[in-house]
Amino acid sequence: xxxxxxxxxxxxxxxxxxxxxxxxxxxxxxxxxxxxxxxxxxxxxxxxxxxxxxxxxxxxxxxxxxxxxxxxxxxxxxxxxxxxxxxxxxxxxxxxxxxxxx
Length: 102
Prior knowledge:
This protein is of the alpha+beta class. The chain has one domain (2-100): Alpha-Beta Plaits. Helix content is 29%, strand content 28%. It contains three helices and four strands; from the N terminus they run βαββααβ. It has a four-stranded antiparallel beta sheet with strand order 2-3-1-4. It is globular. The relative contact order is 0.34.
């Protein structure tokens, strides 16, 4: 199993609409990739390493797939549409990391 982490860097200028992200964007992604997406989790950054330190990421999403190939097959054809929706909820692009669950 793999996890595709989408990490949205935090800064004083960042804007992020969690309502739109959780109620519209994530369900759209789920609909587009279908059953290939095994599970999705959304996180809101609350803090950093030390007390009062801001979170390094304003938000993170974890999308779980059986394999890299499954992710690429299901996500690839819709990547442009998914990416085009980003301005509807944020002024920052997410960083993507694909990891193997060990």
